[in-house]
Design a protein that fits this description.
With about 425 residues, the protein is an alpha/beta fold. The chain has one domain. It is built from 13 helices and 9 strands. Helix 5 links the parallel strand 2 and strand 3. Helix 4 packs across helix 6 and helix 6 packs across helix 7.
């Protein structure tokens, strides 16, 4: 029965998903609002221009397009774009031969990422504010993501000790597609998420370099992700080469995936795509919807196709990883314990205790760059007998409504407190 269900899902996942566009919301960038700044990113990892796009230009957007695809088209009316704005600068590529436009776009993108980093740096320079980066999951509209970020901020403020700690939140909105469960949004988000994290390296390196330029150590940073936000952060801090076939064998014509493949290791020679460095990187992942190979691949467990790859998984230094673990999560298990079926998009990091113990928990000992790895059980043990699965959401009877587990998770992430009075930590042999 489960195999029939899996086959049904594979077939129906070829439906029509749509992009989540942020052209209007992107005007909120480089603006401090309620202790938060926001950054908006398309499905291919390009940051949105913060100004210059008249609303009428973005009302009829063709599907399957990112910023580059839209604004490099000959029928995109750049004459209506406001001069001396970020959108106007991107539009200048229309004056170039087609073969030169992509590289021009990448050079403008680097300038925009540097601008976002400079703005963030100016907001915290000379303050005691700690920076917390928030990442939502796939199939999440702007409103859905904003609601998720609100819940995340409430939990951070509630659990951080001592109480007088100050935070500046960075809302990282990314195009994780949207659609019904059988629309193909999930498979598309899995394909685009690693590109988003890869391009985000530009922003984080620029941010870190501003401290180094003043002779200071880069700060401690904290990440809080939900669902497929985990594979975005995975490609930011490392090389998730084995997590997705598209990352391994891109088509020759696919500039985005070929750029990832070229610079995936993030060596110093990769320039703006090198792996970012901070004094510490603490990463909390609720319902991590990504395979364990995003973070670690064991040499003795590689198959023949994996043997030639070096430096995969987490490559950043001073990293602490805190996972939730829920073998009842409806979305992660696909209802029938199919979390490790690659054809449906493996999601074992947040739902398979055995794989966590085999591949992730061992990083405590096997990787010098990883400080700690822990996981907290989030199964709803009080659910009635007839409710066989748990919700994937943060609120509305989701993860954050399990008070004991939530306390344990945030004490570890924010307070470096690994006490476990209620025995919620995942115990490995």
């Amino acid at each position: 029965m489960s195999k029939v269900y899996a086959l049904f899902l594979v077939i129906t996942l070829t439906g029509c998903a749509s992009n989540v566009y942020y052209f209007n919301e992107a005007q909120k960038q480089e603006n401090l609002e309620n202790g938060s700044v926001s950054i908006f990113i398309d499905a291919f990892g390009s940051v949105y221009p913060k100004n210059g796009l008249p609303p009428e230009l973005t009302t009829n957007i063709p599907r399957e397009s990112g910023i580059y695809d839209l604004m490099s088209m000959c029928d995109f009316d750049c004459s209506a774009v406001v001069e001396n704005t970020e959108a106007f600068e991107i539009c200048q590529m229309q004056h170039l031969p087609e073969k030169e436009r992509y590289q021009f776009m990448r050079s403008v993108q680097l300038k925009l990422w540097n601008s976002r980093a400079k703005y963030l740096y100016e907001q915290i320079k000379g303050t005691k504010k700690e920076v917390v980066f928030l990442l939502h999951g796939y199939n999440s509209s702007y409103k859905d993501s904003t609601d998720s970020f609100k819940l995340m901020k409430e939990e951070v403020r509630q659990h951080a000790m001592p109480r007088e700690r100050q935070f500046l939140f960075v809302n990282l909105y990314w195009d994780g597609f949207e659609g019904n469960p059988f629309s193909g949004a999930w498979s598309r988000a899995q394909a685009s998420g690693p590109l988003v994290g890869f391009r985000l390296r530009q922003f984080f390196n620029a941010f870190s370099d501003m401290y180094k330029a003043e002779g200071k150590a880069p700060p401690n940073v904290t990440f809080l992700t939900h669902s497929s936000g985990a594979f975005v952060v995975g490609s930011l801090i490392g090389n998730p080469f084995f997590a997705l076939p598209l990352l391994q064998n891109p088509k020759e014509s696919d500039s985005e995936y070929n750029a990832f493949k070229k610079h995936r290791h993030g060596y110093e020679s990769s320039g703006e795509y090198r792996i970012p460095e901070f004094s510490s990187m603490r990463i909390g992942m609720i319902a991590a919807a990504t395979p364990t190979t995003t973070f670690n691949v064991l040499e003795n467990k590689k198959d023949n196709s994996c043997k030639k790859e070096v430096d995969s998984g987490v490559l950043a230094k001073n990293v602490t990883l805190i996972f939730s673990m829920n073998g009842r999560d409806f979305a992660l298990t696909k209802m029938f314990n199919l979390q490790n079926l690659s054809g449906l998009g493996a999601t074992g990091s947040g739902s398979d205790k055995d794989r966590y113990c085999t591949y992730l928990n061992v990083m405590n000992e096997s990787r010098d760059n990883v400080s700690k790895v822990h996981a907290i059980h989030f199964e709803n043990t009080y659910a009635p007998w007839y409710r066989l699965t748990d919700k994937h959401s943060l609120g509305n009877s989701g993860y954050f409504d399990r008070t004991e587990q939530t306390n344990t998770f945030f004490n570890a992430l924010l307070n470096n407190d690994y006490s476990d009075p209620n025995k919620h930590y995942v115990s490995c042999p």
